Amino acid sequence: MTRILTLLQNIAPLFEKTTFHQMSQVIFGMLVANGRITMLGLSRWTEKGGSYRIIQRLYYSVLPWKAIQWLFFRKRFLNPEDEYIAAGDEVIVR
For position 1, what pLDDT does the model report? Predict the structure, then answer.
């Protein structure tokens, strides 16, 4: 489990320290929780700093998802000698 959380260090420069800590708490809660995963359930499984209100704030915050995905891919999987095919899907956000 800690191995998964160490992967987050690759994307840490994209976040403020507080947001990164909140995201780490939520991911930790998702990894250890069993059954149905809800914000209330996550807050019960997280350590100090993972209250229900903090999880709500993280879920309602705007995150740079394109930059997160690109940086994570570049740091963990990109091999300059390989060829890649990129595909996308249209998503509507209201």
Answer: 61
φ, ψ of residue 28 in degrees (nearest 5): -60, -45
pLDDT digits (tens, 9 = 90+) for 28-45: 888 887 888 888 888 877
Residue 91 lies in a domain: no
The answer to the question of residue 94 being in a domain is: no
Count the domains in the chain: 1
Q: Residue type at 51?
A: S
| Residue percentage of the chain with pLDDT more than 70 | 95
Q: Determine how many CB atoms are found less than 10 A away from the CB of residue 78.
A: 11
Amino acid (one-letter) located at 41: G
In sequence order, what are the residues at sequence separation of 6 or more whose Cβ sits closer than 8 angstroms to the Cβ of residue 41?
29, 33, 35
Q: Name the packing angle between helices 17-32 and 52-60 (round to 10°).
A: 110
* Residue of 3, 19, 2, 18 lying closest to 68 (CA atoms): 19
Nearest to 29 by CA among 49, 50, 4, 46: 46
